[in-house]
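hey so u asked for the seq, here:
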Amino acid sequence: MLNKLASLAAFPHKRVLVVAPHPDDESLGCGGLVATLALTGTAFCFVFVTDGGASHVGSPTWSRERLAARRRDEAVEALRRLTVEDADITFLALPDSAMPVRGSPEWDKSVAQVAGIITEFNPALALLPWRRDPHCDHRASWRLAKDGLKLADAHAKTLEYPIWLDEFGEEKDRPRDDEARPVVFDVAAVLEAKRAAIAAHLTQTTALIDDDPNGFRLTKGVIERLATPTETYWQAIDEAD
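ran it, structure tokens below
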């Protein structure tokens, strides 16, 4: 059964926080909704959690520092293509695929930083990665954001976007009926902007880095799966009307 398309009017969206585990998740997971909301005058705050530096660790010419800097530039360009170039942007620069353990001093410091961002920005809606998306950074980024929201005593509505759930998720990773409900937005009108934003991440979508045989690259199939006329999010049942 097809899910009914959601209305933007059903969600507060004057000020929207976007939490992306890596530079490119903002475009892959919620680029369509971001571009749609940008047309309505929404103010945005983006938090990029990791440095994205683990995608090509075997490259002799692209050090982690060089790659992380390039990925920051790609994220900024992607946001420009989504027409949100005036957004507040924070790069936490936590280590890609090696985020600090929850409860460690490094974790607590990051939670406090996120809470400070949330307090200052005061979002009405937060777009977070799906809590059990099959990537350690996605799960940890969701937890980090939730801890930050709690510490800030924020009352923003949250929607969670999956990236790898359909491709690598096990049954236990999927939303339970008593846990979350799907929210589907029509993003057909801005699909080309979303595709352009994804394409801005050249280190992840092209052979720009060609000296790491084990380097990561988004396949055409993954991009086609995520760049469609609709975007599906999950809303926790206890937040649903």
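Helices lie at 25-38, 64-81, 105-121, 136-151, 165-168, 191-199, 202-205, 220-226. Residues 54 and 83 are 28 Å apart (CA to CA).
lmk if thats what u needed
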